[in-house]
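Dear H.,

Thanks for agreeing to be a second pair of eyes. The structure we're designing against is below in token form, covering all 61 positions.
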């Protein structure tokens, strides 16, 4: 079995990303209610899913 050397950094980064998912819309996008907010959520979700998929495929987490 391969060592999972990125498990702890991935967990820490996951917590940071989740915090940003909540902080950015309320702090920086507080005036946005339409397409900008939906675009933010869509892009951040897509980016995080892509990163997670790449790490899983390579067996790093």
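And this is the sequence the design step returned. I haven't edited it by hand at all.
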């Amino acid at each position: 079995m391969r060592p999972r050397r990125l498990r702890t950094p991935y967990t820490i980064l996951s917590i940071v990303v989740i915090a940003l998912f909540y902080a950015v819309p309320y702090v920086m996008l507080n005036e946005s209610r339409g397409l900008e907010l939906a675009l933010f959520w869509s892009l951040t979700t897509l980016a995080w899913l892509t990163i997670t998929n790449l790490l899983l495929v390579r067996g790093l987490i």
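Two observations from my side: Residues 7-57 form one domain. The chain is about 70% helix and 0% strand.

Warmly,
E.
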